[in-house]
Amino acid sequence: MKKAMLQMHAAVFLWGFTGVLGRAITLHSTMLVWWRLLITAISLWVLYLAQGKSRRINPKAGLQIALIGTILALHWVCFYASIKLANVTIALTCLSTTALLASLIEPLILKKPFDRVEIFLGLFAVAGIIIIYYNHLQFSVGIIVGLAAAVFTVLVSVLNKKIVDTYQPEQITLYQLSGGFVGLTVLLPLFQTFFGENFVAPAGWDWLWLFLLSWVCTILTFFLYIRALKKISAFTANLVLTLEPVYGIILAFILYHENREVSRWFYVGFALISVAVVVHTRRLLKRS
């Protein structure tokens, strides 16, 4: 159990590091994600083919998983765009609202009844975001894009619930990331037309950061996460996952001194969001 918890915390810490790497990489968000998906997808196919095991699934299911992968790609694009438009701290703060947004969006998609307490907690978190927004107007676009990233995360999570019991995690990851790469490639002309983001190849240190992002913060973290799940409950895993923004923000403060880029009102807003997340997590604990 202790080894599994260490693996889980290591995975979450490395996920928190993705934001720091995103700021270090000079590519714009779309190209950053495109190259990340390309490197990750090729690496996963090589690993799985080397194992000699079949990863085939029926075409209809493969298309569904690939479409979810495209939504995941859009989440990453928005997340890294938020970092470029604001900073790592703001992007991760927006991402920390994911669990609360899920409690509001999930009932709409899965046709479940709304929980009044969850709605109240969601509004509590919204109040925190509003405080941060109006006291950091220079980051306003980054905050909006960061919240879009959180919404895409919720959609991926909810849609994955419909397939997670049918296919192996390795299959889902392989086809989702490959599908995300194909989907983002198809969407590239739209990004070029509306946002002027042309195809750009990495240069210099960007190659190192991209391989770290793909191999260490994507593939390695996935295997650590899956191994840990064999020993600990899904609830414990989700509890540890709430630390991802905390790890990422601490790293951003240490490496980029982002604490100098935010005002005291950021901490007020972040405190409101944190209280809502903690209460939400405690309610889940009582239900389990």
TrEMBL record:
Taxonomic superkingdom: Bacteria
Sorted UniProt keywords: Membrane, Transmembrane, Transmembrane helix
SUPFAM superfamilies in the record: Multidrug resistance efflux transporter EmrE (SSF103481)
Gene Ontology CC, one term: membrane
Ranges where the EamA domain occurs: 4-133, 141-279
Residues that span the membrane, as ranges: 32-50, 62-83, 89-110, 117-134, 140-160, 172-195, 207-226, 238-256, 262-279
Protein name: EamA family transporter
Organism this protein belongs to: Flavisolibacter ginsenosidimutans
